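Database export, one record per block. Field names are fixed; values are copied verbatim from the stored entry.
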Amino acid sequence: MIETQTPKSKRPASVRKAVVPRLFFLDASGGRIVSVNPDGSDKKVIVTAAGPIPDGIVVDAEAGHIYWTNMGNPSKNDGSIERVDLDGKNRITVIPEGGTFTPKQLHLEKESSKLYWCDREGMRVMRSNLDGSKIETLVDTSQGDPRPGPDLKKWCVGIAVDTDRGQFYWTQKGPDNAGVGRIFRANTEIPKGETAANRSDIEVLFEGLPEPIDLELDLKNRLIYWTDRGNPPTGNSVSRAPMDADFKKRPPHDIVVTDLMEGIGIALDLAGNRMFVTDLAGDIYSARLDGSGKKVVLAAQGNLTGIAYAETPNNRK
């Protein structure tokens, strides 16, 4: 997840010197939130017992907060979203257990002060205010199915928001290795007179993907990035594609990173021309935005899910 804040070039020199880049990632197996430098050094455990099954993470560096999703038990309606300060203090519940079914990737939209997330077994795309009030369902893919959803093709996983165009993107992964994953797009506001279950503005951008998981957007260059699980050669990868292509023609996408072990989280450092990716094998990788220069930042850290890049206040004396 990209942490939203004032661009570097627009910050006073004193402010630029007062921040340090950090990665924040989730270990689902260990129930931890961990922070490291982008080169993997200075590892710090921010939160223990962060579960059950923490999955999506975003950082609001300006406000000093970390938000994350807990999937809970996928067969029960007990998902939640929590928040903690950057130093691990003042932990609070934002969305209580049962406010969402199994929340996955999380997106912080600062302009409207909203949290967006995908609800996997709940078969929904949802949002709320940053304090957890005004929970809304933006997309309901259930078509009347009970929750937890029995049809994996309806499971919503990854989420990203295009603030420039007032649209959001999400993934539906499908069954393991089935090659029926899809990426969709819709407006951030439901068309007048329609509902989350019958809205007419949903576009299918890509079909036949291995298992698309998390999403990120490069709004300046109008590119969409996503991780894929599933078998090689097209799975366990990172892909990117133009956001403004003619998707009715089903344009091809570029696979820029391969050889992941069940790829999950992705975060972009656009100013630094680099991405960071996690996989369930416990590794964090970095690469340039074109996929070149791939290297391991950390290995064997548990079962890793979400990751965020942020420039945080430098509090060291």
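Remark 1: Residues 189 and 280 are 34 Å apart (CA to CA).
Remark 2: The longest strand covers residues 304-313.
End of record.
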